[in-house]
Design brief:
Shape: elongated
Number of domains: 3
Number of strands: 17
Strand order of the largest sheet: 7-6-3-2-1-9-8
Distance between the termini: 52 Å
CATH topology of the largest domain: TIM Barrel
Radius of gyration: 25 Å
Helix content: 25-40%
Bound molecules: alpha-D-glucopyranose
Structural class: alpha/beta
Strand content: 15-25%
Low-confidence stretches: 1-33
CATH architecture of the largest domain: Alpha-Beta Barrel
Mean pLDDT: 93
Number of helices: 14
Largest sheet: 7 strands, parallel
CATH superfamily of the largest domain: Glycosidases
């Protein structure tokens, strides 16, 4: 071993900061060859569920009291109105399954500190403190697992209701960590105990942390949290909100325009403008918008985690049912080009999203809106075996234009798409190639 490495390892023993950084690096590097990520990479679609007492008055989840839009006592009074009286985990699982989603992530505790499962670590849960008097998580995970849908637990590290947590309202905190380390240690014990409960009670396939921004990796003890989860389930996936100790990135609401560099990423997005149920929020995205956003994400190598919020009685608004059905029906017609695929070819070849089959011998083109006529594809070096429409297998005619016999630069493929083949939302074309796709990305010339 070279002296440099020996020095590095000695330092590592004594410096917790360096240790945490090094493990964060390892956590990141581990992704590259990690088998555990393969289901996630293939999944493409997950459904996010924000269930909580905020649905009673339809205020924004936790933030409404934190930002002083409503007094804390009024917010917590919603506990009395949370009944889940029509909660049917079987129906929830069916609703999720019919979309084609391969995983679901549900809130086990939001920043308001109200657990949606039977925590033994305090009394602030829908089991002990609301008329619902039941655990939302166990029966849902059981129904999801019957349908081979992976189960994710959203867990807020922030707990603005806990007396040992420093943060509370936007302009007032209970204490400062550096000045009351024993209080913070008590909180560490509490939140890590809850994570341990989630691991042992539900064995989630995915931990979806939130709120890591309020403290550092060493304050959260992110490394220990990660190791604790993996010691119970070495295949558990952890999202990227653990101050550097997660497995994938989680952009929120804001769509990437260029392809993110991270190998694994997931955009979480609300179906209207709020995570939880709010009767006043009628800004529903249309099925067309959801499907075009979804195809764009998959084309860029990511997953969509589409969020819905149940009402306090455990039912979903009709818009949720309608849009999820349309999305699911579209996936039934076109899922071949989505699930178990790879992100598509680089930008500039085709003016729309694309994906590739796992072996890259099939290229899929997504036509947004009612596009028909002569569709062009630039820079394809392969020979084409056939072109057809995914949803009805109709063969399509094509022509290669501008291929110069003595040049290696490919011509432009023009594909004839008759208006009659259009899908209601997004039509998908299947181009079978003579081998893995090879794309010319030069600037022309001889
Ligand atoms: C944000 C919000 C939170 C929401 C989450 C979902 O971090 O704090 O309310 O649950 O996004 O991604």
């Amino acid at each position: 071993m070279r002296p440099f490495y020996i020095l590095f390892f000695i330092l590592l023993q004594y410096c917790p900061f360096i240790q945490e950084k090094a493990v964060a690096q390892v956590a990141k590097m581990g992704n590259d060859d990690s088998l555990k990520m393969s289901w996630f990479a293939d999944a493409k679609l997950g459904i996010f569920i924000h269930a909580g007492i905020y649905s009673v008055n339809g205020v924004s989840e936790s933030w409404s009291f934190h930002n002083k839009e409503v007094p804390y006592t009024d917010y917590m009074n919603q506990l009395k109105g949370f009944t889940l009286k029509n909660y049917d985990p079987n129906q929830w699982a069916n609703l999720i399954a019919q979309t084609g989603a391969k995983y679901a992530v549900v809130t086990t505790k939001h920043h308001d500190g109200v657990a949606t499962y039977d925590t033994k670590l305090n009394d602030l849960s829908i089991v002990k403190a609301t008329p619902a008097k039941k655990d939302l998580i166990a029966p849902l995970f059981s129904e999801l697992r019957k349908r081979n849908i992976k189960c994710g637990a959203y867990f807020s590290l922030i707990d603005w209701s806990h007396p040992d947590y420093p943060g509370f309202l936007k302009d007032s905190s209970r204490y400062i960590v550096a000045k009351d380390t024993s209080k913070w240690e008590k909180f560490q014990h509490f939140f890590q105990g809850q994570i341990n409960e989630l691991s042992t009670k539900f064995n989630p396939d995915l931990f979806w942390f939130d709120g890591d921004w309020e403290h550092s990796a060493s304050e959260w003890q992110s490394k220990k949290v990660r190791q604790g989860i993996l010691s119970t389930n070495k295949n558990a996936i952890i999202n990227g909100r653990l101050q550097g100790f997660g497995d994938y990135e989680t952009p929120e609401q804001n769509f990437p325009v260029t392809r993110p560099k991270e190998k694994y990423w997931e955009l979480c997005m609300t179906l209207n403008n709020n995570w939880g149920y709010r009767a006043t929020d009628t800004q529903w995205k249309t099925p067309y918008e959801v499907i075009t956003i979804f195809t764009d994400i998959v084309s860029n190598g990511g997953n969509l985690l589409l969020d819905i919020g149940p009402k306090e009685d455990g039912t979903f608004p009709k818009e949720v049912h309608q849009t999820l059905k349309e999305l699911g029906d579209w996936n039934k017609r076109n899922g071949e080009a989505i699930f178990n695929t790879l992100g598509g070819i680089g930008q500039g070849h085709f003016y729309g999203p694309t994906t590739l089959s796992k072996d890259s011998t099939i290229l899929y083109l997504f036509l947004q809106g009612q596009i028909y006529g002569s569709i062009s594809l630039k820079g394809l070096q392969n020979k084409i075996k056939s072109i057809s429409v995914v949803h009805n297998n109709m063969p399509l005619k094509y022509k290669v234009v501008g291929k110069i016999s003595w040049s290696s630069i490919p011509g432009i493929v023009y594909i004839q798409v008759p208006p009659t083949v259009n899908d209601k939302y997004v039509t998908v074309l299947r181009i079978k190639l003579d081998g893995p796709a090879r794309m010319y990305r030069g600037t022309g010339g001889l």
